[in-house]
Amino acid sequence: MQGLLEEIRALEERVAEEASREADEFGYTLRNGRAAFEKEIVVRHRELATRICRYLADSSLLAVATAPLVYCLAFPLVLLDACVGIYQLLCFPVYRMPRVKRSDYIVLDRHRLKYLNIIEHTHCAFCSYANGLLAYAREVAARTEQYWCPIKHAQRLKGVHSRYYKFLPYGNADGYATNLEALRREFSDLQ
Fold first, then answer.
1. What is the DSSP letter of 159?
2. Alpha helix (H) ranges present in 26-161?
3. Which one-letter DSSP state was computed for residue 28?
4. Poorest-pLDDT segment among 26-35, 38-47, 119-128
């Protein structure tokens, strides 16, 4: 299992390298964690932006009609964000679990793209927030599960969180009795 995890980390590193090549290809550099484009590229991006009137004219009536339903999710998402933050703030120190850094998951940077109009900026911000929040909440839940019940499922899962591979095999009662306390403290890969 450890060998497979190392292969996964190596593949993740390759993906990061590919993303770096994309930055070169599309003419931006990261400065203090922010993407900065060359001036000529910004000008070209502005030229490519779809005007709001054209954007709305090209949108289907159903897309416009369902947009408020999509944005209604903002309220439960903000509530989830607050609850996860409070939970982590109060409970993680009690169980001596390392906190999840919210800003590693929720990244709002697409509003700086000049080829998006204000509606597209809003859509991008909403989706970035929602997906980042859910990834953040998943990591908080993963660390909680590692503490309370680090046992793999008998059935194969479609997607697993970052801590799952450290869990004990399903049915390993002796391992659970012997290793639970050690597993509750095994966050060395996060430092």
1. S
2. 39-48, 52-58, 61-71, 74-95, 118-148
3. E
4. 26-35
Residue 191's pLDDT band (cuts 50, 70, 90): low
Q: How confident is the model at residue 112 (pLDDT cuts 50, 70, 90)?
A: confident
CA angle 42, 45, 47 (to 5 degrees): 115
Exposure on the CB side of residue 136, measured as CA atoms within 13 A = 25
CB 127 within 8 A of CB 106: no
Q: Where are the domains of the chain?
A: 1-37, 38-190
Tens of pLDDT, residue by residue over 175-188, are 999 999 999 999 98
Hey, what are 189's tokens? 């890969």
Nearest 10 degrees: CA dihedral of 82, 84, 87, 90? -70
Q: What is the largest CA-CA distance in the chain?
A: 66
Q: Looking at residue 101, what DSSP letter applies?
A: -
